[in-house]
Amino acid sequence: MAKATPTVYVTRRFADSGIKALKSAGYKVDVYSEDKPIPRKELLKNVKGRTALLPLLTDRIDDKVLDAAGKGLKVVANYAVGFDNIDVEAAKKRGITVTNTPHDKVNEAVAEHTFALMISLARRIAEADAYAKAGKYGHWSPTLLTGTDLYGKTLGIIGAGRIGAAVARRAVMGFGMKLVYSDMRPNKDLEKAYDAKRLTMEKLLETADFVSLHVPLLPSTRHLISTAEFALMKKTAFLVNTARGPVVDEKALLRALKTKRIAGAGIDVFECEPAIDCDLTDNLELKSFPNVILTPHIASATIEAREAMSMVAAENIIAVLSGKPPITPVK
Ligand code: DGY
Questions:
Q1: Per CATH, which fold does 7-100+304-321 belong to?
Q2: CA 293 to CA 242: how far, in whole Å?
Q3: Is the pLDDT reported for residue 270 higher than 90?
Q4: Catalytic member of 214, 244, 261, 306
């Protein structure tokens, strides 16, 4: 009997290269056609009988979806580095491989965006842009929109994995910053290359002028930065989050901003994403602070990174369906 053609379900249109690679490998590929998250009902219907799923971070892949896909499902190749949208244990129990997309191009893109936020905060770029565009620039003044240097300041990286290391390189080689980091494991390469000092998170928060988060969202990292952590930070320090929204307790962040406990924040990811604020019962809105820069989860949004993510996801599927080890498995 001829072997059935594997079928792949992709939950959103994205860079073509990955889709082409999957088709060239001989698979039947179906792509959700709309440019918005697939409704749960449709997801449950459309995954039925698939050999591979290629979801986005907006799709919750849990027991229900895995059951709906059925026994033929071999691999879930997430189109993201983060995989908090996937119940990895539920997949493991069923013998389904889960993969993600930690490509250099993605790491570098996120590191660049982290710096875009840091520079914008330090040099008040968003405020200056609004000021100039509003026609307010009447005369030069030595006190107009003064910011702070990055040069000579201390960057504290929480999570010294691949993205953290790409941020570290920029900080030391590009901006003459000092580096401290906290991580469960020491990163000897970082220490050797950039004279980075490993500190407890508490000590890091007390020391750093800029704190940048690069941890995955896990039960242990949910609200990693909350009231007690803000209390440790310097009043002149900035927080940058390009990791996952719930790593920061949004209510605590709002309070820290309101009481000027910290100097500002650059936020790319939100606790109740895509909502910018979880609730407005305390009449505090992230967008109301001039010293807060918000971007809508675009840290990895470069053409190069998106292409790479598309190819890595496809190559993971091709590897697993050919009986080879996945390239970037989630463990
Ligand atoms: C990731 O890869 O996890 C980003 O958050 C989305 O590209």
A1: Rossmann fold (3.40.50)
A2: 12
A3: yes
A4: 244
